[in-house]
Amino acid sequence: MDRYQQHEIPQISVRITQYDQHQVCCGCGRLHTAARPEGARPGIVGYGPNLQAFAAYLMVVHFVPAKRCVEMLEC
Ligand SMILES: [Zn+2]
Question: Which of its termini does the chain have fewer beta carbons within 10 Å around, N or C?
Fold first, then answer.
């Protein structure tokens, strides 16, 4: 009699992973600090590859200005 399909996409949420690099005072007298994860940029916050791709998609395919894109991603 009746059919209905509702198409939906998963809600987008940001997953934050914190990497703590420990530092030790070595027997040689120097401080040694663990390396950051591969691909990590300088600074305390960075975008992962999926978020970078999403930002590029917004700017290149949908012509969202960079400033608006940053505002969207900061929420
Ligand atoms: Zn050492």
Answer: N
CA nearest neighbour of 39 among 52, 22, 55: 52
Q: Is residue 57 situated within a structural domain? A: yes
**Ligand 1 centre distance from Cα of residue 2 (Å):** 73
The two three-digit tokens of residue 5, written as one number: 């399909």
Length of the chain: 75
Compute the distance from residue 49 Cα to the ligand 1 centre, in Å.
Answer: 34
- To the question of pTM greater than 0.85 for the whole model, the response is no
CA distance 31 to 71: 39
pLDDT in tens, 10-53: 988 888 999 999 999 999 999 999 999 988 888 998 888 888 89
The range of the structural domain enclosing residue 50 comes to: 46-75
CA of 34 to the centre of ligand 1 (A): 12
